[in-house]
């Protein structure tokens, strides 16, 4: 959409996810657009976030903190405050492994009485290039059906509850659901999705960071109704425990099983993570999407994204070939 004066505006992008995967996409997207909103999972129940959640009844702040840190200003001020947020205490006492940013975010929530306002204040402190919002207004639990945990009946589905437990299970995750099933969603989240040109889902822990967004009824409805185009960014490697043995195609098939009516427009994958490009292209096509293969990893053999390579790939996805927003939705 042209901006006033004829200059082309950068696309409005909403990125969905959590943890290191969302931080990777945000680190790239900040180079592509100045209209960026992160919608972050709130189901973490481990570490510092889990302790604050249990003791104070707040949203788990850790994934929100990581998203804010990924969007910090590039100057000395932003980088310094990013390091403050990410700092963890090393002590024999009760503060051990608490992240400073988790404590700061929780303090603002208690003082201001509103999670979104508190996150906006931290974003101002960091000079963040974008906005960070929680996926739901209340803490969530992830519950999974896991196969292979019952030695007497390996095909039996055993319920496993909690993000950490699901992410580290030794069985095979067959499906996930949320508790509560229909949590409230902040209006700013729904508005950001409504106004988006592109919605980016992934990379990240597939069952515990990516799919949960599709399971919140109000959020899922907004994603289905949005005029925006939708891009799924596939992981560079299967995650031990959660997606062991998953092919690139399996990730898309699981996504489709949890959101069968969700139309996709683009699937972005690194060739090193794709065994059969033709097969992946067919699966992507069955969901309405075109496959774009680009090297987005660091290239050192580790499954980590290179922010500038990923940014270049997103520019290709958002290019004129893909980016005419459909008016008929």
From TrEMBL:
Pfam family, one: CofD
Gene Ontology MF, one: LPPG:FO 2-phospho-L-lactate transferase activity
Compartment(s): Cytoplasm
GO annotations of cellular component type: cytoplasm
Keywords: Cytoplasm
Taxonomy, superkingdom: Bacteria
One GO term (biological process): regulation of cell shape
CDD domains associated with the record: YvcK_like (cd07187)
Major subcellular location class: cytoplasm
Function: Required for morphogenesis under gluconeogenic growth conditions.
Protein family: Belongs to the gluconeogenesis factor family.
HAMAP family: Gluconeogen_factor
Name the record gives this protein: Putative gluconeogenesis factor
